[in-house]
Amino acid sequence: MSVALAACGEGRLRRQPADFIMAESSSIPSIRPAHVVGTTLREHVLQDMHAAPGATGEFTSLLNHISLAIRIINSRVRAAGLAGLLGYTGETNVQGEAVQKLDAFSNEVLLNVLDRSGHCGLIGSEELDDAQINNNHAKYVVLFDPLDGSSNIDTNVGIGTIFAVLRRSEPKLTRPNLADALRPGREIVAAGYVLYGPSTVFVLSTGQGTHGFTLDPAIGEFFLSHPDIRVPARGSCFSVNEGNFSRWSPEIQNWARWIKGEDSTVIVPSEGAEPLKTPYGARYVGSLVADAHRTLIKGGIFAYPADSKSKNGKLRLLYEANPMAFLFEQAGGMATNGKDRILEIMPTELHQRVPLVLGSRDDVSVFRQFVTGERVK
Ligand SMILES: O=P(O)(O)OC[C@H]1O[C@](O)(COP(=O)(O)O)[C@@H](O)[C@@H]1O
């Protein structure tokens, strides 16, 4: 790609992609830099911080440290087969799952970088039995799933990292403890996930909408690519592991039959809305991050309900369901356990599981109507 030096106001010269310059050279003084270099994740978070009264910069620094850990993990995910990071460590984690080398590596990177940040009073990870006290008087709690979609690691299918950040109430007065983490999701101050897919996309919310950033591998920087994501009110795809059908409750089986168009009941999700058109298409990757990302962008519904084998579903409340629910709600979507709002659930354990249903408002409302019996057929 050729570059040229061009004026960009204030008399400074700046390198620009030549083909862009040619198009507008007739009005060099009016070239707007924004066209050339997107907003970086760092700048976006800084803008958010400036909007927050009494901000000290610690929050921004914490998010920048998380972004650093993500870029390190990304570099190894993209070359896992060459870096000897495929396969298992031989250990079993607190979930009873065999730990994969990439799980362990990603966990170590996040623990190391968060420790170095100095901003974490407490850290909780899917790969750690207990929450870790880090810096006694630090403000924040970070809870994460270092590598989500483990069953897809060795087959090069989309995997991800998920995290949530909470602010401790009295960091200067109290020692960090588990109670700092066992708080409802509505108290989250930031949540995000990263999808290591065809490109690396970081979806983040600090409570001012949900935004997506794409990593430019040539520069090693995340740039704003999906500003202010809005989940469509309804979609045309459903995402669930139908292999569990026989274990679902009759209500959820009814919902599945309906959404596949096996029964022709016409459903109008809310007063005055258009009827929902079935059958929906089926999409299921088996990585929460990949299935949730598609649902966030295109709409529709993702569900990992409870079943006769896993009474509370499979996914973990604190570092899978809560961060996803925060991001979806900030994008105008919905997240429920089938009855209650995920972000209202009061946690009792670090690794507790919860049924998770998230997606478009119309689609999730109908799921809830089937589960609550408001709608049988
Ligand atoms: O294979 P199943 O039972 O459909 O479960 C898939 C679900 O389990 C998970 O892999 C659990 O997450 P981890 O890989 O982090 O343990 C989710 O990403 C995914 O949605």
UniProtKB/TrEMBL annotation:
InterPro entries in the cross-refs: FBPase_C_dom, FBPase_class-1, FBPase_N, FBPtase, Fructose_bisphosphatase_AS
One GO cellular component, as annotated: cytosol
Pathway the protein acts in: Carbohydrate biosynthesis; Calvin cycle
Positions with a binding annotation for substrate: 148-151, 241, 284, 314
Domain of life: Bacteria
One Pfam family named in its UniProt record: FBPase_C
EC class: hydrolase
Known cofactor(s): Mg(2+)
Molecular function in Gene Ontology: fructose 1,6-bisphosphate 1-phosphatase activity; magnesium ion binding
Keyword Cytoplasm among UniProt keywords: yes
Binding site residues for Mg(2+) 2: 145, 148, 320
Cofactor note: Binds 2 magnesium ions per subunit.
Predominant subcellular localization, coarse grouping: cytoplasm
Catalysed reaction equations from the record: beta-D-fructose 1,6-bisphosphate + H2O = beta-D-fructose 6-phosphate + phosphate
Cellular compartment(s): Cytoplasm
TM regions (residue ranges): none
Stretch forming the signal peptide: none
Enzyme Commission code(s) on record: 3.1.3.11
CDD domains according to UniProt: FBPase
Residue span, Fructose-1-6-bisphosphatase class I N-terminal domain: 40-227
Binding positions (Mg(2+) 1): 126, 145, 147
GO biological processes: fructose 1,6-bisphosphate metabolic process; fructose 6-phosphate metabolic process; fructose metabolic process; gluconeogenesis; sucrose biosynthetic process
UniProt keyword annotations, A-Z: Carbohydrate metabolism, Cytoplasm, Hydrolase, Magnesium, Metal-binding
Assembly and oligomerization: Homotetramer.
Annotated protein name in UniProt: Fructose-1,6-bisphosphatase class 1
Organism, scientific name: Labilithrix luteola
Lineage per the UniProt record: Bacteria, Pseudomonadati, Myxococcota, Polyangia, Polyangiales
